[in-house]
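for the writeup, i need someone to sanity check this before i put it in the appendix. the sequnce is what the collaborator sent (i think, or maybe the updated version? ugh). structure was predicted straight from it, no edits. if anything looks off just tell me and ill rerun, i have time this weekend
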Amino acid sequence: MHRFSTLSVFCLLPLLSACAPAGRPVRPRPAHAPSIDTLTLRAHTFFLAHDLLRGRATGSHGAAVAANYIVSECRRLGLEPVGGSFMHAVPLELSVPVAGGTALTVFAPNGDSARFTLQRDFVPTGGTRASLRGFAGQLVWVGGADEIRERPEALPTLSGAVAVTAGAVRRPAAEILARHGAVGMVHLIADTGTYRLHTASRGRDFLVLTDTTVRSSFFPPIPAVIAGPQLSRALVAAARRGGTVRVTLDLERRPVHAANIACLLPGADERLGDTALVFTAHYDHLGIGTPDERSDSIYNGFSDNAAGVAMLLAIAEEVRNTPERALRHSVLFLFFTGEERGLLGSDYFVARPPVPLSRMRALINLDAGAPPARPWHWRVAGGTGNPLGALAKDVAASHGWSVTTSPATANSDYYPFAQEGVASVFIIPRLPYQGLSADSSQALQRRWDRYHQAADEFYEEFPFAGLQRYAEFAYLLALAVDRNPGRIE
């Protein structure tokens, strides 16, 4: 693939109706204009998901271009930097496995062994500086994540052992295994397509925060690998016979430059302006990976999460351009790096916040893909037991929509904030879409759902009404908090 310059990317800017030069005055639209402009959403996603940004991998040139684009838009809208700067550095280190020194070996009790290969047979899950390492021990079957969390007292003896799990397990289940003495984990993935999705998502290298005092809300405290179908079969057989496993991991390391972006719109009420309503979205994606049968090797990340960034910028423009509906609280727009690599940017922000977390009244995260039609059913992750979830139900009901809530999990950037006590939710559209049957909605989703695939790119024919509705719900929830701050006490 040919190299490209920042200049070549910014030559696209004149094509974008929403991308006015910095310094151009922002003119309020007429009050009767749609609340969220679909042309604005179209323009932002076109630029951010363009091939010239090469998939916006964390710390890459394309991600830097995306970051500068976002800052330029914040400046155009008259938003202010936070702590003296729009960009806030996130100290990262790239760790690249060395093929000759990285392997997984399964040992049978009789001394026979079989050696398996990185990528083809297994991939490390990533981790922190402390947990991205090799491990060895006897293989012990522990079941799936639900079994581990719901019946920890039924776990077998794990002291010094390697836990074998059915499918990947996240940090909560991994912490239970660590407390029971496991020194590592092997997650079995029997389906080839699912394993390929895992390898495509993780890539061939790993990013870690160099600040070892920052706690990861995503990665388990012990090392882990994901095993593909062939290796999974071998591990199941070995575990039944009391076999062992050894994972060796040889890494080359180098520093990586990345940044979060924070843009502030001061509130209209001096008494409330010191507290903020927060909108979040991540702007990174997977970069260059395995070619897709329907596309090329660039993982453009249109729905994940150029769409989320576009919605935040469109909301910012709407808030900025409608003084008659000015928000009394300040509004903070946060764009995170490193979400795809394990919530790195949001974990670092929470640990080193340029704005005290105590000043955040409520946080709304947008990162659930681009619905191709208008949703009217929603899941609000993090809304269970959270007054913000209860308020979301009321807002939805007033518009003829419905909301279900679920507990917070480490599935996007709202999670580190929720762990620190900030009222935080992640709005997720659900089927069926408004005016469509369940079958028609599922067919439409199948046509456009290209999660973590190279084919997740901008298409002129993509219908933006669903994204418009998605952004409107987030904006309406923020308005409800602004008008009823006591609901979030």
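The radius of gyration is 23 Å. Residues 302-321 form the longest helix (20 residues).
thx in advance!!
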